[in-house]
Design a protein that fits this description.
The protein is 70% helix and 0% strand. The protein has 74 residues and is an all-alpha fold.
Length: 74
């Protein structure tokens, strides 16, 4: 069984990165380079985030809508 910190690092953080990247790209029309600078990752990583389906990343431990609201800053 995974420890709580492992779940956060392996499941929650990647999901948040995807949701935040999509929010910044779609809502604020930020470039991949700008998003990469803010998140501290490469532009290629942001491109990957934007092409992922967050529903496949959502672990059973978390409510996707709740995490989406966190990513939006609500």
């Amino acid at each position: 069984m995974n420890q709580p910190c492992e779940i956060v690092v392996k499941k929650l953080l990647p999901l948040l990165r995807v949701l935040i990247a999509k929010e910044l790209s779609q809502t604020y029309n930020w470039s991949q380079t700008r998003i990469a600078n803010i998140l501290g990752v490469t532009q290629a990583a942001v491109s990957n985030y934007l092409n992922q389906d967050e529903r496949t990343l959502s672990p059973k431990y978390f409510d996707l809508e709740e995490i989406r609201n966190i990513a939006k800053g609500l």
